[in-house]
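Researcher: Good morning. I'm working through a list of sequences from a screen, and I'd like to move beyond sequence-only analysis. For each chain I'm collecting a predicted structure so we can compare shapes side by side. This is the next one on the list. No need for commentary yet; just the structure.
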Amino acid sequence: MSNTPPLPSLKLAVIGAGPAGLTLALHAARSLPQAQISLFDARPADRDVSGDPRTIALSLGSVQLLQRLKAWPVELAQPILQVHVSQAPPTLRDMPAVRITAAEQGVDQLGAVLHYGQLVAPLQAAWMAAAAAEPERLLTRFGAPVTAVKAVDGGVEVDAGIAESYDLAVVAEGGVFADQARKSFAHDYQQNAWVGTVTLSDQSPVGVAYERFTRNGPLALLPLRPRDGQRRAALVWCLPQDEDDVAGLSDAQRLTVINQLLADEVGPLQAISPLKCFPLGLNAERTLVEGRSIRIGNAAQTLHPVAGQGLNLGLRDAWSLVDALRRSNDIDAALRSVEWQRAPDRWSTIVSTDFLARTFSWRWPGLPAARALGLAALQSLPPLKKALARQMMFGRR
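Model: Good morning. Structure tokens for this chain:
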């Protein structure tokens, strides 16, 4: 344990009340009693976010962080008990899939899946309760969009209608790739992600996340809590934009195509919801820190969904920053520590995700077979598979 005295005071602005921003604000409120924390978001405080249907996949490490904040909605989340990764034909026959199970890793779950609103609503309620208990220290600035963040002597100025100075600003407002200003590292994959919900057959295994590598891109099913007795999964279906004809297909046609692409053990999908389309790209900052500002989550890096690690990276960024501030009496030293500490996890995830996403634009002969052989090798090497599973669950340590 460090004997370094904490900062005597800290005026902290958190910009963005999504999962990463709320997690950081809550952790800071509990771990930094000397800090005055202002949480900004453009949405009004009374807006009900609980019904937002976007799907979030969280690693076990992220679930544990949220459990420590006592803001994990265990009754709404579907545990991931197994991850199944396979290559779709054309490829070599009878190539094994990679199967990573919670049981073989000695954990109760590999992660969990729930809707965005089901996560944000309890986090926001926990923040509101904390702010009501300490109204002079914890300030809620909802309905106040931040229009500018700029460096000033000894801190940063945040303009949300009125310019105010802070010791440190955390930018956690990210958005989606199509709407973002381009960062230091940007690449348009020229791919679309079609997302929605599908109904599984009664014979489909429970709690299995499927990743199917197809000729055109990854196809993922993420298990959701059953509804009205029906098993469900979130769908993420990635396609190259110049070959994307999903918009012109009926629901029945979409189901037929997806069923042909999935592994046999999934079983035939029974129904599909309306789908939404999002362009995909990489958009990452070179560094997290700029002066007395630090970016986390999608504000720091927006990734292809092939690995499902974007939010998990953001939550690890948030936790590391608060812990660094708790251990240090120097804000700048704490920021340098976070930048250095987070770099291996951050860049290994960015590079590996980017490489895998780019391979789907390659039309090299034999590439599907090479992917299948790689998956087979991974399945046959338990130590390597265990290392991959640990990184999926907890990031690179």
